[in-house]
Design a protein that fits this description.
The chain has 588 residues and is of the alpha/beta class. The protein is built from 19 helices and 28 strands. The protein folds into two domains: 410 residues, ANL, N-terminal domain (Rossmann fold, 3-Layer(aba) Sandwich); 103 residues, 2-Layer Sandwich (GMP Synthetase, Chain A, domain 3), CATH 3.30.300.30. Helix content is 30%, strand content 24%. The radius of gyration is 23 Å and the shape is globular. Bound molecules: adenosine-5'-triphosphate (ATP) and magnesium ion (MG).
Length: 588
């Protein structure tokens, strides 16, 4: 890495004194016990995510402060203060009690990003009921699989989603006792076999005592994105709030006056940990957009809502890049001061795009459904090396390890060596189980270490560099090739919008590198362009690593959380079964 490609932090980049200024000192000083003291008070003791996220602020003087601003294309926005959220979530908690739903039982939510989703999630947590938010685009099959695995007792959904995805298949979800419906067009619903949520809420009291929960009680059930196979159900506890608070503080740099926009849907863990919990724990105002991606509208939201901290994903950034530079010129973002991204490796091109177009570099960070919160991040405290996911946050110990045949791992201390990324077990939001898959859970741990399944390197300054998922790494003529490196090189070409790289079995070299590429607006596939891209990649990467084949696709297959599904590119290329496609965007 040559130093000219480092983005140095300046006061202009930061604009505000950051929460994390001295990385090393803060890591030394840090303790999870100190973070837990944030949550020292709760009526009746214990720890409950929802009380800490909402009611604590009502007691602390933020009763009238907006907690959420819900936006919907073509409709007026809706604002809910912390005080209103406290009352509504109490009502929802009382609705569950009225139905006899108790602690530890599971509630699923199938809805777009509407206020009721947020109220139901937090209200359930107050009742000690476990919440599992699902993507509203799921069809009957993936819904039934997840509800059955989680033994869901309650489903909160809308009248129209119920009609389209649940009614006819209800017999396939035998654990469901109560279905609570929200009328999409407002008012009430009257559908046989279901209950109208608005009526129940109107009758319920606004006052409720919390069901006692401790930090170790199960709070959330989150399904992984399904990028590498069948999604797994990760179990999270109320104590995860400590990670949500700490990462909101260090990695997103949340300050009381921020307007925060997390673009993720709560069907993906990011949309819950950072679309609901972390910003509320910090008492900030969150924007929730109910619409789908649209470059113009998104720039408009950043401007109109005066967003100051923005948390998004590489897929969205690539789509904004693809939309071109003209659109953005119509907008200004004087309030925006910190931008972060998660979900996939963020190509250096994208980090620089942020600097050029938004005036701010994009801070990549890394975590998984299993980790519950951000683990490794580019923070305000240090320079950015574009292409690196940053350094472990205070409270997190990471390492590069090699699995041994006897089941233990060896830590690789030398820098710049490739191995599996591991985390010292025990941070508060670590998953406690894969639901009903004890065996799989156990294989994720070796001694003190949680093994992430991702390959990475650490450089001499402690920055981590993503290489690829262990499953995606390509073995070609004795080289181990991470798809990210090849994809990033292709992305440097002005015609390329996105790239997905796989290994294609080959009798001589093991696997050859094959790339699938979609083009930016204004470019058309052609033989000449293919040759040009092959040449560009060879120049950047050398013949051993550069792709031997490039195919053009209009769009790459991706998960609903926006991740390129390389396993699907590979299955299609080889004519093999596609496997679990429940999370495929555009699928049923
Ligand atoms: P599944 O486990 O079902 O295959 P998934 O791993 O995509 O799906 P998530 O938990 O949503 O499900 O994603 C976590 C994974 O996403 C990480 O293990 C890593 O491979 C990838 N990832 C997330 N953030 C980054 C990042 N900043 N850089 C590189 N990879 C990232
Ligand atoms: Mg995973």
């Amino acid at each position: 890495m040559d130093s000219s490609s480092i983005i140095h932090k300046t006061a202009a980049d930061l604009r505000l004194a950051p929460n994390l200024a001295d990385y090393d000192a803060e890591r030394r000083r840090f303790s999870w016990d100190a973070v837990s003291r944030e949550f020292a008070y709760q009526p009746g003791g214990g720890l409950n995510i929802a009380w800490q996220a909402v009611d604590r602020h009502v007691w602390g003087g933020l009763r009238d402060k907006p907690a959420f601003r819900f936006l919907k294309p073509g409709r007026p926005g809706q604002v809910f203060s912390y005080g209103e959220m406290a009352g509504l979530t109490n009502r929802f908690c009382n609705v569950l009690r009225g139905l006899g739903v108790g602690k530890g039982e599971r509630l699923f939510i199938l809805a777009n990003r509407i206020p009721e989703l947020y109220i139901a999630a937090l209200g359930s947590l107050k009742n000690g009921t476990v919440v599992s938010p699902l993507f509203s685009a799921f069809g009957p099959e993936p819904l039934a699989t997840r509800i059955n695995l989680g033994e869901g007792i309650v489903l909160v959904t809308t009248d129209s989603l119920y009609e389209r995805k649940v009614a006819k298949w209800r017999g396939r979800m035998p654990s469901l006792k109560h279905i609570l419906l929200v009328a999409e067009e407002g008012g009430t619903t009257n559908v046989p076999g279901t209950l109208d949520l608005a009526s129940l809420m109107a009758q319920a009291s606004e006052i409720c005592e919390l069901t006692p929960t401790t930090g170790e009680d199960m709070a959330l059930l989150h399904f992984t994105s399904g990028t590498t196979g069948t999604p797994k159900g990760a179990v999270h506890v109320h104590g995860a709030a400590a990670t949500h608070w700490a990462t909101g503080h260090y990695a997103l740099d949340l300050h009381a006056e921020d307007i925060f926009w997390c673009t993720a849907d709560p069907g993906w863990v990011t949309g819950t940990s950072y679309g609901i919990i972390a910003p509320l724990l910090h008492g900030v105002t969150s924007i929730v957009d109910g619409g789908e991606f649209d470059a113009e509208r998104w720039y408009g939201i950043l401007q109109e809502e005066a967003v100051s901290v923005w948390y998004t994903a590489p897929t969205a950034i690539r789509m904004l890049m693809k939309a071109g530079g003209e659109i953005v010129k119509k907008y200004e973002f004087p309030r925006l001061r910190f931008v972060a991204s998660v979900g996939e490796p963020l190509n250096p091109e994208a980090v620089w795009w942020g600097k050029q177009v938004l005036g701010l570099p994009i801070h990549d960070n890394w975590w998984q459904t299993e980790t519950g919160g951000i683990m490794i991040a580019n923070t305000p405290a240090f320079d950015i090396k574009p292409g690196s996911m940053g350094r472990p946050l205070p409270g997190i110990e990471a390492a590069i390890v090699q699995r041994q045949e006897n089941g233990t791992v060896q830590v690789i201390d030398e820098p710049n060596r490739e191995g599996e990324l591991a985390l010292k077990a025990g941070w508060p939001s670590m998953f406690r189980a894969y639901l009903h898959n004890e065996e799989r859970y156990r294989t994720c741990f070796a001694g003190d270490w949680y093994l992430t399944g991702d390959l990475a390197q650490r450089d001499a300054e402690g920055y981590y560099w993503f290489v690829g998922r262990a499953d995606d790494v390509i073995k070609s003529a004795g080289h181990l090739i991470g798809p990210f490196e090849v994809e990033s090189a292709l992305m440097e070409h002005p015609a390329v919008a996105e790239a997905g790289v796989i290994g294609k079995p080959d009798p001589t070299v093991g696997e050859v590198v094959k790339a699938f590429v979609s083009l930016k607006n204004g470019f058309e596939p052609s033989e000449a362009l293919r040759m040009e891209l092959l040449g560009h990649a060879r120049k950047r990467l050398g013949a051993a690593i550069a792709p031997k084949e490039i195919d053009f696709l209009i769009q790459l297959p991706r998960t609903r959380s926006g991740k390129i599904m390389r396993r699907l590119l590979k299955a299609r290329e080889l004519g093999l079964p596609e496997g679990d496609t429940s999370t495929l965007e555009g699928g049923a």
